[in-house]
Amino acid sequence: MYDAEELPLENETPAAVQTATPPVASAKRGPLFLLLGGAVALAGAGFGAWTLIESGRHVETDNAYVDATTAQITPLTAAAVVAVPVINTQAVKAGQPLVILDSADAKLAVARAEAELGQVERRVVGYHANDDALNAEVAARAAQVESARSDLARARTDFERRQTLAASGAVSGDELTQTQNGLATAQAALAGAIAQERAARGQRAVNSALISGVGENPEVVAARAKLEQAKLDLARTVIRAPISGVVAKNDVQIGQRVQVGQPLMSVVPVDKAFVNANFKEQQLRKVRVGQPVILKSDLYGGSVKYRGTVVGVSGGTGSAFALIPAQNATGNWIKVVQRLPVRVAINPQDLKAHPLRVGMSMSTQISTGR
């Protein structure tokens, strides 16, 4: 029998057992920590290596914006606005009327030009009718010249006969003087007839040049050109969209009198938008035309990605083309890293699925390793 003091309690553990347990647990956890640390180190090294490799194969920037070749709408004739069938943000097709101008003056100009063309054509037809009359006049003048030559020959013969007889006294001096005067008159008549024939032939030559062809006559050509110009001005009273796109900056009002070249509105071809990405100088070392680009828009977030292609690099930085360029050769100089615009074409299918607007922010990543 044991005494109550010598018997161990039911929940008591021998001291030897208590002191032996912790070293065993620590021994098991040590390799686990080492294994976990090694895995983390290996993952970090792998990620660092991947970042090092991939960072040299890509350049990216969020300093990029959507742009498009916008068409500015300006009138080609001065008139008052009678209708504006479009509004801002409206999509329009190429050839669709945008602004309608008052066409009353243009219609009157067309009517005047048509009347003037008719008058000119009738005048040219009259030149043809005059040609026969001028030919007849030339023939008559030629006959007068022949008659004058005959009269001159007869007068010369009479004068020579009487001059021979005057030496023997058979002809008086008065008669000789009369025949001499008749010879001079015949000579003057022949000269006048020749001059009149030449004048008639000149008139006929001028008329022949005028009737060289009704369609090619300079007067007809000028009148027809004036009529075409009047018709063109009439057609320009309806200002149409030169391209398809979205109307923007519509500032024209009904009743306003517009002048030639005055900006009225713009048409933005959103289906042909592109991106101007402004990369730093050191990022452009490996950028080439044709490299693939991944684009993201702030509008749709990172879940929507656009495929693009580098189509060109600007010929100068923005500061080089500024209205007042920097004068780095004067005063104190501080180097500022410049940015150069890179134009990126967007895949048309991606742009159609997720339309963009000019000026929107984009994130751009160019794959330079390909």
CATH topology label of the largest domain: Methane Monooxygenase Hydroxylase, Chain G, domain 1
Strands in their spatial order, largest beta sheet: 1-10-13-12-11-14
Q: Domains counted in the coordinates: how many?
A: 3
Instruction: Count the beta strands.
Output: 14
Question: What is the level-2 CATH architecture name of the largest domain?
Answer: Up-down Bundle
Question: How large is the share of residues in beta strands?
Answer: 15-25%
Please give the radius of gyration in angstroms: 52 Å
Count of helical segments? 5
Class of the largest domain in CATH? Mainly Alpha
Can you describe what's shown?
The protein has five helices and 14 strands. With 370 residues, it is α+β, with helices and mostly antiparallel strands. The strands form three sheets. Strands 1-10-13-12-11-14 form a six-stranded antiparallel barrel. The two termini are 92 Å apart. Residues 1-11 and 15-21 have low confidence and may be disordered. It folds into three domains: 59-69 and 269-367, Efflux pump adaptor protein, beta barrel domain (Elongation Factor Tu (Ef-tu), domain 3), CATH 2.40.30; 71-104 and 246-265; 106-233, Methane Monooxygenase Hydroxylase, Chain G, domain 1 (Up-down Bundle). Helices cover 45% and strands 21% of the residues. Helix 2 runs antiparallel to helix 3. Strand 11 (292-297) and strand 12 form a beta hairpin.
